[in-house]
Structure formats: C-alpha cells, structure tokens
UniProtKB/TrEMBL annotation, chain A:
This is sn-glycerol-3-phosphate transport system permease protein UgpE. It comes from Alkalispirochaeta sphaeroplastigenens. The chain crosses the membrane at residues 20-45, 82-108, 114-139, 207-230, 251-272. Residues 83-274 form the ABC transmembrane type-1 domain. InterPro entries: MetI-like, MetI-like_sf.
UniProtKB/TrEMBL annotation, chain C:
InterPro entries: ABC_transporter_permease (IPR051393), MetI-like (IPR000515), MetI-like_sf (IPR035906). Belongs to the binding-protein-dependent transport system permease family. The chain crosses the membrane at residues 12-32, 74-94, 106-130, 160-182, 217-239, 265-291. It is a multi-pass membrane protein. One of its GO terms (cellular component) is plasma membrane. The keyword Transmembrane applies. GO terms for biological process: transmembrane transport. Residues 70-287 form the ABC transmembrane type-1 domain. Pfam families: BPD_transp_1. This is ABC transporter permease. Keywords: Cell membrane, Membrane, Transmembrane, Transmembrane helix, Transport.
Length: 289, 431, 296
C-alpha cells in the first residue's frame, strides 16, 4: 500500500521543480503520519478476514484465504440488530433536531421581541453544558417517563442536547435571508407557518443538510448515553453494542473485527462523500460553540 | 402550509411512538401470552443454547411467547437490580446466589418458590439439595439453581510432566514450590490471571480470605452493618496473593481473564485459576492440551476450612408481580427439566444442579470429576463481589489491582477498604 | 422591530415552544436536580433517598480518586492542546502550502478518516494495538530491534493514562486540522504573494500571514479540545476497563459513571457532576471572554 503510493506521489513533485531538503523531510514525515493513520485501519480490514489463530499469531501477514464467514457470523450474532437500532435512532434524531431547531430558529430570527432575546440565553447556555452533568437526573427522568431502555431514551436526549447548537446555526442562516422576500409573502396573505414552510425551509436546504449530517455524526457515534440508558441487547446501538459483542464473542476475534468494519465503513464512506457539507458543519458548529 | 409542518411533526411523533411500542415485533394476537426472560449469557455457546431451548418451548406452548433479553456479567449486576425496582421487571431472570440473591429477595418483588416446591416434590428432589440453600433465606426459597460452579487451579499436564511435577500441592508453600519448578523448567510465567478484570482479582481474594481468616471474623466483616475489616489476616492474605502475582509477569495487569484462558487453551500457559463453567471452552477446542485440576490449597497457619470450594450456583428467579405466574412456572420447569439440563451440559460443557444431568454420554471426564468435587465438597465459598457490599469489594479489587501494578501499598488498600466499610456501616445503621 | 407587530403574539411562541420544552425538561431540569440530589444518598434501584446535607461534598474533598481524575483530565487537556491544536495547525499549514498542492488533498482525507470512526471502534482497535503479548505495538518494537521499549502499555499505572491519551490524539487530530485547513483556505492568496515578493522565508510567512489569520480559530480549537478533555469517557472506560489499573487512568466522567452505576452512590455521582459543571462554566466564561477579544 505504502510502497505503491510513494513513488507515484514523488514523481508528481519531481516533474515540476527540484525538491528542497526541507520538503523531502516534510514529505517523509507526512508519509510516516500516513502509515500511522492508515495502517491500523487497513489492519482491521485485513484481520477481519483471518481466523482467530492467524490474528494472534501472524499479525502482520495477509489472510491465507479470505474468511468472509466472519462477516456472516458478525451480522447474524447481533450486528444487524445494532445497525438497525442505530439507523432508527439516527434518522429520528435528525428529523427531531431539524424540525424543532428550524421552527425555533425561525421564531427567534423573525420575531424580535424582548422575550426572544431572553430565550436565546438558555439556548446558548445549553451549548456550553456538558451532557455528563445531567446524567444521573436524566436517568431518573427517563425511568419515570417509562422510556428508559427503549430507543426513545436515546432519541429524546440526543435531540435535546443537539438543539442549542443547531437552533443557533439555523437561526443565523435565517437572519441572512432578506426581509423583502418575507414581506412580499406577507402581502400575499401568507401566515407565519406558511412563510416558514414555503419559503424559509426550501431556501435553507444547504444549512439543513449540514445540520442533518452533523447530527447523524453525533447520533451514530454517541457512547455514554447509549451505554447507560439502554439495558437490553435488542435496543443497543452500534457503539454500545460492540462492547457487548466483544464480551459475547470471547475467543472469536475475527467476527469482532468484521463487526467493527461493518459498523465503521459504510458511515465513513457516507461522510467522505458528503465531506463538503460535513466540514462546513464542523466549522459552523465550532465557531458557534 | 401550517398543515405541512404539522404533518411532519405528526409523522415524527408516530415514528417515535411506533419505535417505543416495539414496532419491530410482529403484531401479537390476544390469546398469546408474552413472558420476559432476562439472562446474562450473550456469549456462545450459551447464547445458542438458550435460543434453541426457547424456540423449542414456544413450539410446544403455542400460547406463550418468550421475549428473551441478555447482557453480559458486569452489566447484568447493575441492570437486574434496576429492572427489579422498575415496572418492566422481567417475569423470569437469572441470579447469582448468596448475598446477591438476598439483596434481590429483599426488594420483596421476587416470588417465593416454596409453594411450587411443595406441590411438586419430584421437581424439588431433582436438584442437588445443597445447591438450593444459597437461594434460601429464612426458610423461603427464592431461586432454583441452574448451573453449579467451583473455582480450581488447572494445569497443563504435559508441562507439569516435563517439569517433573508429580503431585498436586496441598498447601500454599507446596504451590509455590510447584511454580518455582515450572519457572526453572523455562516457563517465565508459570501462572497467570487477567488482572485487568477486577472480578478476577476478587475470586483469588475471596478464596484467600476464607482460607486464612477465621470464619466468624469474615461473617462479621461481610455483613454491611458490622463490617470493619481491621483483622490483620487481610493484610497477610493480600501478601499471599502478591506472592502469586510475582509469578505472573508484567503483562498480567493488562490482560483479561478471557485472554489468559485463551493462552491456556492454546497451550502457552502452564497454570491458571479457572471455573468449572469454563471447562467447556477448553473442551470445545480440539487442539487444547490435556489438563488436571485441584482445589486451591490451604495456608499454613490459616483458620479457614481448607476443603471448601470457592464458587456458587446460579439460578432462575421469578417475578412476584408477574401477570402470568402459571406460564412463568411452566417455562422455569421446562428450562430445569432433566432433558434440557442434559442438553445444557452437552452443548455448553458446564456442570448443572439437576441430579443426573451430567452423564458420561453427554459430558467428558473432567466435567464428571468436577461435578463429583462439588457434590463431595463440605461447602462453598461465595464469590467475593457477591459476598460483601459492592463498594467495599470495589475498594479491594481496584486497590489490589493497583498494588499489582505497583501503584499502591497494601496499607493504602486496607485504609480505603476500611473507609468504604465505615460509610457502608453508617448507611446501614441509618436504614 | 417592524415585524413584531404582525400576527398574533401567540404565533412566535408556538415556533419556539417545542425547543423550550425539550431544553427545559431534558437539559435544565436535570441540571437543577443535580444540586438537589447532591445533598442525598440514594441508590439506582430504590425509591428512598436519605438526606445527608453536605456530606457528599466533604467526601469529595477528601477523595483521592477525584484528585487523580482531575489530574488525568488536565493531562488530557495539555497533551491535546499541544498535539491536536498546535501540531494540527502545523499540519494544516504544510498541507495547504503550495509545494504540497498535489498531495495535500490526499493526505488531508486520510488524516481526517479517524475522525469519522466511532470512538468505540477506535478503542477496540487500540486494544489490539496495545495488547501486551500479541499487540501490534510490542510486536513492532520487537521487529525494529527495540524490545527494551516493550511494555504492558495499558497494564502499568505509569503508562496507562498516556497510552489512553495517545488514542484520543490519533482519533481527533484530523478534526482540528480540518478546522485550520478551512480557515487557512480563506486567507487571500495575495497576502502570501506579497510576502513572497519580499523574499520572506516560509516560516516567516507562516508567522506573519497565517498565524494572525487563524488566531481566532486557534482559540476556538483550544477551547473545544480543553472542553472535550474534561468530557473524556469512552477511552478509559473501554481501554483500561474503567480507568485501571487501580484508578490510575480514571477521568471525572468515568468516576461519575462508576460511582453512580457500579458503586451505587447516585448522590455522590451527582456531586461529581456538579464539579464537572463548575469546570465547564469556567471554561465557557473563558471562551466568552476570548471571543470578545477575538471580535475586536
């Protein structure tokens, strides 16, 4: 892998101008970084096709014969359920965050009154708040509501803790929408809800997509709530489910590694393909928070 | 277009509701009863065994559907206690014995099984009778034993032979001689334990405490209301453990018990402390080495009964508040039937509490030996983390882990144990 | 204020109501309850609470594990700022440099990939890397002839915390790097060109042009990393099985979890949550102050 890419990259450079010593050193450093990052990821995929014995005794070598059965075992012994749960939780969280945050963003950007500023304070404060602080009381609230150990026990807190950031992101986008558009709609007799649904939501599709992608990143990977608020194996999402999976398999490293690939690869491909939105979202989210 | 956003909201709500309502399960017809069954064995081969037995039960009882759920060991301890106090308490669930069972029973939500046992004398007689005791408190039986267990030192037969060891050690000093022999025969780590798992440490401690410290002192200390842990024997017992740790090499604190067992199965380790319940894993690997086992030796100058075996049964309990007590009873009887117990032995390779279920044709010689050892032992020692308050046990486990990694002294451990015991005592007195 | 006079005054309220209710019930109510819970002793599985006043706080002050956890969180913060923020910035500057234009996007994508992996997958992976006997790291040291460097990385109190911190760096450096990359891309090309005409050295250019332009994002990134360092949970929970050996690699979040759900001291866990809350408030105030200076 490494040997295949290095000469190609170097040849690109040589065509243009001679390399300075510093550049060569830097480039070698980058390559070392590349190996440190890429090799472990490659190793997971490679080892997921080996037998347990090969994984522990011949850690560097390629599988003698690729053992696709590991993937079948992983999928059958739980990963499929975790995958489905993660999908349900992620999609519900996205819908919840987008709807509630865009409604609030609209309310807070179009109606400037004293109370809208008052409402902004807890929203901004919510962004600073570390979710762990709420762990114990939240656990009891979810228990009392009777939704602990259901998928709702994840969906609802996920939405609540994502709301501040996305409300602010969406609101700032709404603030930039020219007032004239809204006023001409008002002339036509549109209500606030109609303006929201007909004008603002379609116009802000890029920021909503960004929000959705960022939320999916969070919901797909969240670990602590998923570990604590869910007792049953059948409601586990992938991050917490993998822990159960590790303990359940005991000796079988192959299927565990296959499970890791199944839970990481599709979502990585998805994020890389929407990289543009994703990076924009990270930036928007971080500057605000 | 208010309608549109309203529709979106409505859709969302329906989606959420359907998720909670268990939208994944098929529609249930009215005359089918659903029982919740919660156990702690998500790992193979038990996972498959329970799947098969439950499917078989559903086939034979079309009026009952079993909703089975499971989490592994460490989380089970926490989850079952939470579930017991909640509204969705499972109808049938597994439990450890002794103080763990007592704690669950104290909630008042675990069903007394006396009536069932009286009504079905034959069923009551089907268990190894000594294994019912750890589930019985003040004359009320709360659980029925499924598995029985014991923890013993196992050794790789050929490695012992090569090192010229002919006799199983009967005292701790003899054990040390054996370890030295193995070491000089070229085994850098003659014995190993996965010290990354705190519970694995607690198993050693539980045995050593029992072997060394007078039983009445232990009884007083393990009781939440009176525990002080000031007896000098604790220090000595931990020192004995550290002597063993000295043979384990530097990796012990970063290995798990499972990894260590895999080393033993792969023939890379001469000795380890293993449960009978794990024999099945050794047996399942055709290339695993031949092995022997013996009870943890006694300690010279120790006050405990050396013939006791550390290990306790695990069993099934039923909910007092179950809506379908009769169906739950049927299910429990089915799981504990002679036939299914034998099937458990065959598939899992671990000993069970049902008399006559471990037979020559469904097991293997070491399992037969193990079952005999449990039956003939004069009594059992409960697992340490089940025997005492979890906070005190945690102080012991974490503390000794730190001693093993060179981060704490035994005195510091005992101080934190005593502090934890003080708190537990104070709370017990306020209750 | 023009728009405020139209429509019923109920309408704007309707828009924000779902958001306010969600935040109120699931964020602020628990936050307040924490203060109340911290005065009690209670367990997860019993409905009864015992009032013990400030006893939990007294316990907290004397608790050596809290000290260990806080020190570990600070270690996380310092290392993360050094590696993720400082090194991440250098990395971004190199990748955006003209002489690396060709290969930049390739490395950028690769370095960003760990960010996209779920932290539990990353931790399981490093379990294989740090394994004392068959682990990639120790085996690698064997191959390159440095067997004396071999260690039980996660099993020794001296190395466990650092090994855990290293995992976070592997996972998150790409994230901060990406933030810098985007903000470096926004710097007008002419500034660099003007600098080049002056014959300035690349390092001078970095100091004169790049640094001032990424100053704000530098502070933001630092605050993000420090805040994140005080939330670390998954790495010690998974890799060192709850902060072992002993409590050597424990963090506040792991201790909070263990106190509440393993040692069954929910009240004490709430008290620990208050400590985490105070820390996050301090960081937030600091961030707000930095932002004011950033905006000037």
């Amino acid at each position: 892998m490494r040997t295949a890419i290095l000469p190609v990259l170097l040849s690109h450079r040589r065509v243009r101008n001679p390399l300075s010593a510093a550049q060569v050193v830097l480039f070698l450093c980058l390559c070392i970084g590349f190996v440190m990052i890429a090799y472990p990821m490659f190793w997971i995929i490679m080892s997921s096709l080996k037998t347990s014995r090969e994984i522990t005794t011949e850690i560097w070598s390629l599988p003698t014969t690729p053992l696709w059965r590991n993937y079948v075992i992983a999928w059958r012994s739980g990963i499929s359920q975790y995958f489905l749960n993660s999908m349900i939780v992620t999609i519900s969280t996205i819908l919840g965050v987008i709807v509630v945050a865009s409604l609030a963003g609209y309310g807070l950007s179009r109606y400037r009154m004293l109370w809208t500023n008052l409402v902004l304070i807890p929203i901004m404060g919510g962004m600073m708040l570390n979710p762990q602080v709420c762990l114990i009381p939240l656990y009891r609230i979810l228990t009392n509501l009777g939704i602990r150990n259901t998928l709702l026990a994840l969906i609802v807190p996920y939405i609540a803790f994502r709301l501040p950031m996305h409300t602010l992101i969406i609101r700032s986008f709404f603030l930039a929408i020219p007032r004239e558009i809204e006023e001409s709609a008002l002339m036509d007799g549109c209500t606030g809800f109609q303006i929201y649904g007909h004008i603002f939501v379609p116009m802000s599709r890029p920021i909503l997509v960004t929000s959705a992608i960022l939320t999916s990143y969070y919901a797909w990977n969240e670990f602590m709530f998923a570990l604590i608020f869910i007792d049953s194996n059948r409601y586990r999402t992938i991050p917490a489910g993998l822990m159960n999976f590790r303990d359940a398999l005991q000796v079988d490293y192959g299927p565990l590694l296959a499970g890791m690939v199944i839970s990481a690869l599709p979502i990585m491909i998805f994020f890389i393909s929407v990289q543009k939105y994703f990076v924009r979202g990270l930036l928007a989210g971080s500057v605000k928070g | 277009m208010a309608k549109r956003s309203a529709t979106v909201l409505l859709l969302l709500v329906t989606a959420l509701v359907s998720v909670t309502a268990g939208g994944l399960s098929e529609a249930k017809s009215n005359d089918v009863v659903t029982l919740q069954f919660f156990h702690r064995w998500p790992m193979e081969p038990r996972f498959s065994y329970f799947n098969e037995v439950v499917a078989e039960f559903e086939r034979l009882n079309p009026d009952i559907r079993i909703e089975m759920d499971m989490v592994e060991n460490e989380s089970y301890k926490e989850k079952i206690r939470v579930l017991i106090s909640s509204n969705d308490m499972p109808d049938v669930f597994t439990s450890w014995s002794d103080s763990f069972a007592l704690n669950l029973a104290r909630s008042g939500r675990v069903r007394s099984l006396n009536a069932i046992l009286e009504r079905n004398p034959e069923f009551a007689q089907s268990f190894i009778q000594s294994q019912l005791e750890p589930f019985t408190f003040d004359g009320i039986t709360y659980g029925l034993p499924l598995t029985i267990d014991g923890k013993v030192l196992v050794y790789n037969l050929s490695m012992w032979q090569e090192a010229g060891i002919a006799q199983e050690p009967r005292t701790f000093d003899e054990l040390i001689t054996v370890l030295d022999r193995l070491k000089s025969a070229g085994h850098e780590t003659p014995i190993l334990e996965g010290l990354a798992n705190p519970w694995a440490i607690s198993h050693f401690l539980g045995t050593l405490f029992q072997r060394y410290i007078p039983a009445d002192v232990l009884a007083r200390d393990y009781n939440e209301a009176t525990g002080e842990f000031t007896h000098p024997g604790y220090r000595t017992a931990i020192e004995y453990f550290m002597q063993l740790v000295g043979y384990m090499g530097p990796s012990a604190t970063s290995l798990t018990h499972t990894e260590v067992r895999n080393l033993f199965i792969a023939g890379r380790l001469p000795m380890m402390y293993m449960q009978f319940a794990e024999f099945g894993f050794v047996h399942a690997d055709p290339s695993s080495p031949a092995y022997g086992f013996f009870n943890f030796p006694g300690i010279c100058g120790g006050h405990g009964d050396f013939s006791l075996l550390t290990g306790a049964p695990e069993g099934l309990m039923m909910s007092e508040t179950s809506r379908y007590p009769e169906e739950a009873e049927r299910f429990v009887k089915f799981l504990l039937s002679q036939e299914n117990a034998a099937k458990f032995v065959e598939q899992v390779g671990a000993p069970v509490a049902v008399v006559g279920a471990v037979r020559e044709e469904n097991s293997y010689p070491t399992l037969m030996q193990a079952t005999e050892m449990i039956k003939s032992s004069s009594g059992s020692v409960p697992w340490l983390d089940n025997a005492m308050n979890i906070r005190v046990a945690d102080a012991f486990m974490r503390g000794v882990q730190s001693v093993a990694s060179g981060d704490m002294t035994i005195d510091q451990v005992l101080n934190s144990v005593q502090a934890a015991a003080r708190m537990v005592r104070a709370e017990a007195s306020q209750k | 204020m023009k728009s405020s006079c139209r429509g019923s005054s109920l309408e704007p309220l309707l828009f924000t109501l779902p958001c306010i209710v969600m935040l109120g019930v699931f964020v602020y109510l628990p936050l307040i309850q924490n203060f109340y819970f911290s005065l009690y002793s209670f367990s997860a599985f019993s409905p009864n609470k015992l009032f013990i006043g400030l006893e939990n706080y007294r316990l907290l002050v004397d608790d050596p594990v809290v000290r260990t956890a806080l020190i570990n969180n600070v270690r996380y913060a310092v290392i993360s700022v050094l590696i993720q923020v400082c090194f991440g910035l250098v990395l971004a500057a190199i990748l955006e440099d003209k002489s690396f234009k060709r290969v930049g996007p390739f490395f950028r994508t690769v370095f960003f990939m760990p960010v996209l992996m779920s932290i539990s997958v990353v931790c399981l992976l490093f379990g294989f890397i740090y394994h004392p006997i068959d682990g990639l790291l120790n085996q690698f040291l064997e191959i390159v002839g440095l067997p004396f460097l071999q260690r039980p990385w996660l099993g020794s109190a001296r190395t466990a915390i650092w090994a855990t911190i290293a995992v976070s760096q592997w996972h998150s450096t790409g994230y901060i790097m990406m933030l810098f990359l985007v903000s470096i891309q926004k710097i007008p090309e002419e500034l660099y060109e003007a600098c080049e005409l002056d014959g300035a050295h690349k390092i001078t250019r970095f100091r004169v042009v790049t640094l001032p332009h990424v100053k704000e994002i530098f502070f933001v990134a630092s605050v993000i990393t420090v805040t994140g360092s005080f939330m670390v949970f998954s790495e010690p929970y998974i890799l060192t099985r709850g902060g072992g050996p002993g409590t050597s690699s424990i963090t506040m979040a792991v201790y909070l979890y263990q106190s509440g759900f393993f040692r069954d001291m929910m009240g004490y866990a709430s008290t620990l949550a208050i400590v985490i809350f105070v820390i996050s408030v301090v960081l937030a105030v600091f961030q707000a102050m930095v932002f004011r200076t950033g905006k000037e």
